[in-house]
Structure formats: structure tokens, C-alpha cells
Amino acid sequence: MTKSKFGMGGLMAVLAVAAIGACLVMAGHNPVHVGVAMAAIAMPDSAPAWAGLAFGGLTITPANLAMLKQGFNAAFKGAFGTAKPMWDKIAMKVQSSTGEELYAWLGANTKLREWVGERVMQNLKVHGYTIKNKTFESTVAVPRESIEDDQHGVYTPLMAQMGQDAAQHPDELIFGLVVLGMTTTCYDGQYFFDTDHPVGPQGAEVSVSNYTSAGGNNPWFLLDTSKVLKPFILQERRAYSFVAKTDLASENVFNKNEFVFGVDGRLNVGFGLWQQAYCSKAVLDATGYGAARQAMMGFKNDAGKPLGITPNLLLVGPSNEKAALDVVTAERLANGASNVYRDTAVVVTCPWLT
Fold first, then answer.
1. Model pTM greater than 0.90?
2. Which member of 215, 264, 331, 347 has the greatest number of CB atoms within 10 A?
């Protein structure tokens, strides 16, 4: 049996290091810095790399700034990864490879037919709906003195918040677009939520509505998110990433005596198929919900064939949350009758909506 090389002398050394560390923490020193200082004592070969992080603040060296950047980046990524955005409940992500993307296929609803004779080419309408990418950023400046004076830990939560903000930024864009759907055009040239979408063969179109303005209440939205295509599009050209300017020779350090940290990404949002969404300002009750649901399930393509729309998500703001839950989760109505719309949709309450 091999004997351990960790003898009584090694044990005493470990206990001594632990005792010194405990005393330093009790004396009010930063526990993180105490830890790295003890590591420097326990591993003398690595002491020069850790010494600048021990006591009396951070020695401003390229190596220590690199470690600081790694720590801030870790805080950013940690918060980004644990955030729970809502945009993917109603939108599909499309990866972009250029400055803008043309969605000519929107509205090209195809259907299978029995193959009798030769193939029949479907004359699909071509639309010119384009989504242009935009660049978004958020930047904070940290004074050099704050790093030197051992205050960089104060900024770690800020970097984490920046990560959470980046993860949830698409929510702001997508749900902001939902509200704009009543006044912004989609692929067919009409407002996304409108009363006169042209449907049918060219020259013989009829008007179809996916919008009820009567009532004047806060709007609520009924969506079909069960299909590959979604009512809304999140177009991503470049994912959000953490960036830092910590070079001691950089202009911001030389002129402003500060280090700069930030996040940026390149993306935009747009409308998908209006047939998968319905907006109503009517009272959110069984009658209003049923009317919207019936209208959506009756949508047809340009050839007159049913699209197979099945609404499955009821999107509301906080003011309509209770009414939405009453409509689709209550077992019985106020008059005691069975609720026929129970479990026909999932309620999603979004703070970006009213």
C-alpha cells in the first residue's frame, strides 16, 4: 500500500493558512481577495499571477485586466443563459446572412393534391416584404479608480444585468411589434391587423378581417403558434456578445481614465402570416373569444382551401389577464354553465402589453 506524502507538517501548514484567512475575513477584508491571497501562499509558483488581486485593490496590469474581463464576461453569460425571454412563444427565429432579407414566400400557402396526370404548377403570389437588420448596443464606463480601489466587484451585478437585458431585448422588439400591428403594413400591403386583407385569385380577391376594433378596450390577441411558420419573425444577423475595451493604451483610458464594457447585436423583427393572428378590442369574454376563434378557423388560402388554423395561444397584457384565465381555464361560467372553451388556448401574459 502506498503511503500518503501528506504528513503532519503539510497538515499544519494547511491549518495555518486557513487560520490566517479566517482572521483576515473577520478583520473586514474582501473574502474573494483573501481566497486568492491564500492561494498565492499555498502555491508560491503562481503567486505573481495572483498577487495583484490580493489586498489594497487591483494592480492595473494587462494580465489582471484580462482576468477582470473574463470575470465580467462570465457574469454576463451567466445571466444571459438563465434569463427566460418570452418572444419564442409567438415568433420564429430566422438566421440572416446579409443586411436585409426578402420574404417573397410569405403568403404562398401550398396544399397537396392527388397526382392525376401531370403535375400542376401552383401560381403563387410573390410579395416584396423585406426586413432590414439593425444594430443595438448597451455600454457602461467604469472609472479606472474604481478598479484600483477594489470596487470592481460592485460592477459585477451590472454586467450580469446587461446579460439579462440582452437576452430579453427581443421581447421588447417582438411585443412592441405586436402592438404596432394595428398601424404597420405586412407582406400584402395591409396593416398586419386589418379588416380588408385581400384573399383569392388575383383580380377576384375578397376582403378578410383579422381585427375587431369595436369595443375600444385594451387589445388582446389570439394566435396559432402550432405551425412551422409563426405570426412574427425574429431575424438575427449577429448574436448578442459581450465586448470590452481594457487596453491601457486605448483612447478611452488615456483621455477619460475609464474602462468600457458593453454588449451589441444585429437583428430586427417583422411580421409573418397575418392568418395566424387575430387582434380584438372587444370585451374578452366567451362571446368575443369565440368570435375571434371562429374567424381564424375559417381562414382560407387564395385557392379557397381551409388553412387549418387552430388558435392555441391567448396573448394579453396585465389588464386582461384575469378575463383571459376566466375564458380558457375556468371549469364553469359565471351562470354555472360548462365552459366550452376551457383549455382551448394557453394564456400568455406579457408586461410589454397593456
1. no
2. 347
